[in-house]
Amino acid sequence: MSTAPTPLLASSNGLQLAYDRFGAPRGQPLLLIMGLGTQMIAWDEAFCGQLADRGYHVIRFDNRDIGQSTHLSTAAVPDIGKLLTQALGGQPIDPASVPYTLADMALDTVGLLDALGIQDAHIVGASMGGAIAQEVAMRYPRRVRTLVSIMSTSGAADLPPPQPEAMQVLMTPTPPDRAGYLARAQKVAKILRPGSYPEEEARDLERAGRAFERGLNPAGYVRQLAGILASGSRRERLGAVRAPTLVIHGEDDPLVPVECGRDVARHVPGARTLTIPRMGHALPRAVWPAIVDAIAEHAVWTE
Prior knowledge:
By secondary structure, the protein is an alpha/beta fold. 39% of the residues lie in helices and 16% in strands. The protein has helices at 45-53, 80-88, 102-115, 128-139, 164-171, 178-192, 198-214, 218-231, 258-267, 288-298, and strands spanning 8-12, 15-22, 28-33, 56-61, 121-126, 144-150, 245-250, 272-276. Strand 5, helix 4 and strand 6 (144-150) form a beta-alpha-beta unit.
């Protein structure tokens, strides 16, 4: 496994975002955005290294309210059960009723580029990170060279919902103790990564241990989830995306069904789609070659 760089801090949108980099600074910048309640280390060092080996200057970071970025400790913790009931019932959620939305997290992302002196970058997002990447592409088109949306959705209410087990995982509180957290992490991995991946299963505890040591923020998870729900559908706005777009999705995703990814691709002009057999809502090493190849082939910038 590659050694993780020492995290750095950048000021962005009034926050401090923890980040690190891989590859030569002269390479084309490629920014990785991770998903709900998930720290930047979920972009494995070796995965980042493979992209860096393709000539990219790879940057990953902790979103607000997670990992070593600013925790909004004084912000309210929304009633997520109430918000979820509203969302599933087709009732819009007032963005002002939650501490922040995906639009704020998109501004965080652009602020990080500003802090690093990067005018535009290839933007790659997974799950909630894919939704943030979509927002960046719609709101700040000049900052996006190419867009890759992985295992994400347009947020439209008529799309297939998560499988019941996956929904339960989404709503299960994060245990504050190490043993409880590790046990939950193993259970979550088995549900979100269907199929047999012995190599991944052997590393689940190590990954969860690293996340625990970097610092948990259960309230931040709730605020991020509330931000997703209050952001509503992006479907009607996706037509404004002008960056060359690639949608990558696992065919066996139990949390964000593959139809959700296809919906994104249908509504982004000229978007291409790559679906990967046996891939769930995770990035196991077995699918890296397909994903790294697809990103590297897609992220071609011509002046």
